[in-house]
Design goal:
heterodimer; A: 165 residues; Helicase, Ruva Protein, domain 3; 64% helix; 0% strand; B: alpha/beta; five-stranded mixed sheet; two-stranded antiparallel ribbon; 41% helix
Chain lengths: 165, 178
């Protein structure tokens, strides 16, 4: 086999691999679920992406093939058709499954640590850094160093004199 | 001294967050706390299985302390918990009612025929919509409902003799007093 024959074979293989990776993931949303109104369907998809599939847990119901995820997708669309706002739909689901069903936890007292800790760490770190740097500047300027004692002063002068001589 | 304390603050904060996360890791992520604890059962009416008289409704859950068990004939752990539920109903005198979750009626009836029927009544939830109202995300799940029709306890997964002994029976006793 010549190199020329191998290379197209390899390119073909690579191309297939790239195409396989680039191909869109298999859709969890079934054709019969899709709403006729495209705007409403877009809203339904956006809401679905916010909701956790409770069976598979680390997927949204928009991604998941679990039967419960499908039921919840249908429920979301039903609520939208009934005229609910996006917040009302999310509220409807959290009333039943709690905040856990939201992939993005809401900001409230119980999640204060979760949301606040990174910022608190940043602020404390910045304060620490500022204090540290100011301290160093002080050292460089000699602000922190006590003046020479009489004895030290005498020894310094003696050394300088010796140097000049 | 104060300055040293300020240096320590980020470390303390980090340790705090670390401990909080560590405690989170010890939780079973499959055990999702119910949003409905201490709330009235959702309003619903479910028809009975064919050939049976009584279905299940929110009104029918008032009056007595009741265990509501969500089961399906296709659910393997349901079969495992079935003897536990049967004992709970027949020997310990707890009223057990059921939501038959997304099941074919004939499959459910055959299952009860084969394994025995400890349920005082069964509501057929064919499309699983009532189960969603109860916050059910898998079968089996069991709820303890007090006399006023409020959900007081939820167990996810098959009931075991330990859960019955340690959690359900003491709670039934307490709720019956109230």
């Amino acid at each position: 086999m010549t190199a020329r024959k191998i290379v197209p074979g390899l390119t073909g293989l690579l191309l297939a691999a790239v195409l396989a990776l680039a191909a869109p993931a298999v859709q969890a949303v079934q054709p019969d679920e899709v709403l006729p109104d495209p705007a409403m369907e877009t809203r339904a998809r956006e809401i679905s992406k916010e909701l956790r599939c409770l069976v598979c847990q680390n997927q949204s119901i928009d991604d998941s093939n679990a039967p419960l995820a499908r039921d919840l997708r249908l429920l979301v669309r039903e609520r939208l058709k009934a005229g609910d706002s996006d917040t009302q739909v999310l509220g409807f689901v959290t009333d039943r499954y709690g905040d856990y069903v939201l992939l993005k936890p809401p900001f409230k007292t119980t999640t204060l640590l979760l949301w606040g800790a990174p910022f608190a760490l940043l602020v404390f770190g910045a304060i620490g850094t500022v204090i540290y740097l100011r301290g160093r500047r002080g050292v460089a300027a000699g602000a922190d160093t006590p003046p020479l004692s009489e004895d030290e002063q005498r020894r310094l002068e003696a050394l300088l004199r010796k140097d000049q001589a | 001294m104060l300055r040293r304390l300020i240096y320590l603050l980020p470390l303390l904060l980090f340790a705090g967050v670390g401990i909080a996360f560590l405690r989170g890791f010890e939780r079973d992520p499959r055990d999702i706390p119910s949003a409905l604890i201490d709330k009235p059962v959702p309003a619903f009416t479910l028809p009975p299985l064919p050939g049976r008289k009584e279905g299940l409704s929110s009104e029918g859950l008032k009056g007595d302390v009741t265990l509501v068990n969500v089961f399906a004939s296709w659910c393997i752990p349901c079969k495992a918990e079935h003897p536990v539920i049967t004992r709970l109903a027949r020997e310990q005198g707890v009223t057990v009612r059921a939501i038959n979750h997304k099941d074919k009626a004939e499959d459910a009836l055959a299952w009860l025929q084969r394994n025995g029927d400890p349920y005082a009544s069964i509501g057929a939830d064919l499309d699983g919509r009532v189960s969603i109202d109860w916050g059910v995300y898998g079968v089996p799940e069991s709820f303890l409902v007090d006399r006023q029709g409020r959900i007081r306890f939820k167990h996810v997964g098959p009931l075991t003799p330990q859960v019955v002994e340690q959690q359900i029976l003491p709670l039934v006793k307490e709720l019956r007093k109230g």
